[in-house]
């Protein structure tokens, strides 16, 4: 995908040098749309969903407000302390 984005950028630059600003702007807009779509966020997913669910239930009992920053921090800490790991998706 990086090669496609680099090629589009190069084409837009070449069109601008030749004097075809409207075509250059069109290619540049396509470049922007594609680059925004490729920047997807990677989420960390727990490997052991059963352990994660048990930890989450335990944390919900301890905190009045869930979800909150402190509750989520405590959930991760508890999950990891019990041997839980995450994978990127």
Question: Can you tell me about this structure?
Answer:
This protein is mainly α and about 90 residues long. The chain has four helices and two strands, in the order ααβααβ. It has helices at about 1-20, 20-40, 50-60, 70-80, and strands at about 45, 85-89. Strands 1-2 form a two-stranded antiparallel sheet. Helix 1 (about 1-20) packs antiparallel against helix 2 (about 20-40). The longest helix is centred in the first third of the chain and has 18 residues, at about 20-40. The mean pLDDT is about 80.
Quote the distance from N terminus to C terminus: 18 Å
- Taking strands numbered 1, 2, ... along the chain, how are they ordered across the largest sheet? 1-2
% residues in beta strands: 5-15%
Shape: rod-shaped
Per DSSP, the total helix count is 4
Number of domains: 2
- Tell me how many strands there are: 2
